[in-house]
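TICKET: design request
STATUS: open
ATTACHED STRUCTURE:
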């Protein structure tokens, strides 16, 4: 196995790593059979059922290879060319690749690829632009917002003065008139656009206009949709936002981590907010795996994938309606669907449990119609990113909708059929 940029003579030096990497699991099985059993059981769970959790996906074998590489050994506090520790010349190359690929893919001037998660990326964005006590507008949690959008259980709700905007009760779509009125009344330092369970495209131009009217920063949390943006299947927030935060998994199909995109005028503030303000040394194996995922996302094959994700979601949403499971907003523009299960006499928690018993993994979620303070939520949230990675298309979505309907009604035999469908589309041909 030759390393890029080296001569064939270096093969003698890299061969031991190649051999060791191939034998890694056998070593684990001998040394720690109990943990190896957990790994195998999780592999079986992922591949013997339908993975419809909207925030999950199957990273490619190339991404997984980097995550399990010696890059995990390297401490690299700082940024390329400016590290606290020595020996960072090669990991500098990996991080620069990730940064350059992100900037090229999303058309931004600067990218920070070090955040440990999407929440870490949002924290850094707030740290770069705000001070504790500043007023912020974000989508309220029952209407689709995230914990980092002002939950009192989260740093965001404890450190900043959040006001939630929401959706029109008739359409389920963002109420931009309410947003504008709140912005003029509250005069926030920042407005956050983005959600964790809103299935429609966001009008970033409208958000930008409202933010400009009140002199606010516009922060976009594109954790769920950045992969669709990369594939040209969703509008890009980059031309409108001051800062874009996202995860590198979900629809981007990379490692579990975060990313921040911004213009050159905010680059230094964002970088300082990530390190040293909110976190220490980056996880270089994750940074390098992000570079791999960004390289994959720049290909025509990924663009086809992203469009298929959306096509699958739209077919699935329509087919769920035929099962008396009416999608919120009447459908979806993205990979994500939310459904009210109360018509079946279920709560979201009970619905999730019935689906889990049928080998269908999805999430419960709050809906705008749920009473406040939230008790038992009445919604479920599902997505098509993972099953599309497996190669499923529209006909499989029709079948999944029927399986979901049967599972939620408590019918027997669904687990076997779900496992059979999943087995026909293995995400990995071998462990």
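STATUS: resolved
RESOLUTION: sequence designed for all positions
ATTACHED SEQUENCE:
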């Amino acid at each position: 196995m030759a390393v890029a940029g080296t001569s064939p003579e270096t093969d003698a030096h890299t061969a031991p790593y190649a051999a060791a990497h191939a034998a890694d699991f056998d070593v684990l099985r001998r040394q720690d059979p109990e943990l190896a059993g957990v790994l195998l059981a999780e592999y079986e769970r992922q591949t013997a059922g339908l993975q419809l959790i909207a925030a999950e996906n199957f990273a490619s074998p190339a991404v997984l290879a980097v995550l399990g590489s010696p890059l995990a050994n390297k401490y690299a506090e700082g940024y390329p060319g400016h590290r606290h520790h020595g020996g960072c010349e090669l990991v500098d190359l990996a991080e620069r690749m990730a940064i350059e690929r992100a900037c090229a893919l999303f058309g931004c001037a600067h990218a920070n690829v070090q955040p440990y998660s999407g929440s870490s990326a949002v924290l850094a964005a707030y740290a770069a632009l705000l001070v504790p006590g500043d007023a912020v507008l974000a989508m309220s949690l029952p209407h689709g917002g995230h914990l980092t959008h002002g939950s009192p259980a989260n740093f965001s709700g404890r450190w900043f003065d959040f006001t939630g905007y929401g959706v029109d009760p008739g359409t389920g779509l963002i109420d931009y008139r309410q947003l504008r009125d709140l912005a003029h009344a509250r005069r926030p330092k920042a407005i956050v656009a983005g959600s964790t369970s809103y299935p429609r495209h966001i009008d970033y131009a409208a958000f930008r206009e409202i933010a400009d009217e009140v002199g606010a920063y516009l922060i976009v949390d594109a954790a769920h949709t950045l992969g669709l943006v990369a594939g040209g299947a969703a509008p890009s927030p980059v031309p409108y936002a001051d800062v874009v935060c996202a995860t590198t998994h979900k629809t981007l199909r990379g490692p579990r981590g975060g990313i921040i995109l911004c213009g050159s005028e905010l680059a230094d503030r964002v970088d300082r907010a990530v390190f040293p303000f909110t976190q220490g040394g980056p996880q270089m194996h994750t940074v390098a795996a992000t570079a791999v995922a960004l390289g994959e996302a720049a290909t025509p094959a990924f663009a086809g994938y992203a469009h298929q994700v959306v096509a699958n979601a739209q077919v699935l949403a329509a087919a769920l309606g035929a099962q008396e499971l009416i999608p919120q907003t009447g459908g979806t523009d993205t990979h994500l669907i939310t459904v009210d299960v109360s018509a079946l006499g279920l709560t979201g928690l009970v619905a999730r449990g019935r689906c889990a018993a049928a080998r269908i993994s999805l999430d419960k979620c709050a809906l705008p119609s749920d009473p406040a303070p939230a008790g038992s939520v009445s919604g479920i949230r599902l997505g098509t990113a993972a099953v599309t990675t497996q190669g499923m298309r529209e006909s499989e979505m029709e079948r999944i909708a029927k399986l979901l309907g049967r599972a939620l009604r408590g019918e027997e035999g669904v687990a076997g059929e779900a496992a059979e469908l999943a087995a026909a589309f293995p995400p990995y041909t071998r462990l």
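CLOSING REMARK: The longest strand covers residues 135-139. The domain at 72-297 is CATH 3.40.640.10 (Aspartate Aminotransferase; domain 2).
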